[in-house]
Amino acid sequence: MEKLVGAGMILWTGVMVGVEFMDAPVKFQAPALQEQRWVAMQVGSVLFRHFQKVERVFVALGTAGMALVSMNTGRNRLPRLASFGLVLASVALNHAWVAPRLYDVMQYGIDRRILKKSDVPQELRDKSASLHAWYAALELAKMCGLVGCAAALL
C-alpha cells in the first residue's frame, strides 16, 4: 500500500510540473498570444480552474491513502505526515487565498481585452506580481512536500 500511495504522490507531482511549470509559461511565449494577451489569460484561467478540480481529487485520494498507510505502519511516519501536511497547507492556501485573487486580476484583463502588460494599471500589475510570487512559492512548497512524502513512502 505504501508503494501505491508513493506512486500516487509522484503522479501528482508529474501532473503539477506539466501544467504549472511547462504549459503555463510556454503559452505566453506564443506570438499570437503575446499580441492578444487577454486570450492567454482566458486560456490560463480555464486551465487552472480545471487543474484545481483535478487537484481536489488528488487531495482526497492522497488523504485517504495516507490515512490507510498511517494506520497500518509506523515506518517513516513523522517525515511522511509532515511532508503531506506541507502539501495540504500549500493546496489550501492556494485554493482559498491566492487563486481567487489571481482570477480577479485575470478577469480584469479578459474583460478589458488587454493586449499588452503596459495596458494594466501599475497597482494591478504590482498586485499580480505579488500574487504570482505567492503562487509560485506555494507550488514549490507543495512539490517539495510531494517528493518528500513519496520518498518516505517508497
From TrEMBL:
Domain TMEM205-like: residue ranges: 11-107
InterPro entries: TMEM205-like
Keywords: Membrane, Transmembrane, Transmembrane helix
Pfam families: DUF4149 (PF13664)
One GO CC term on file: membrane
Cell compartments where the protein resides: Membrane
Protein name in UniProt: TMEM205-like domain-containing protein
Natural source organism: Porphyridium purpureum
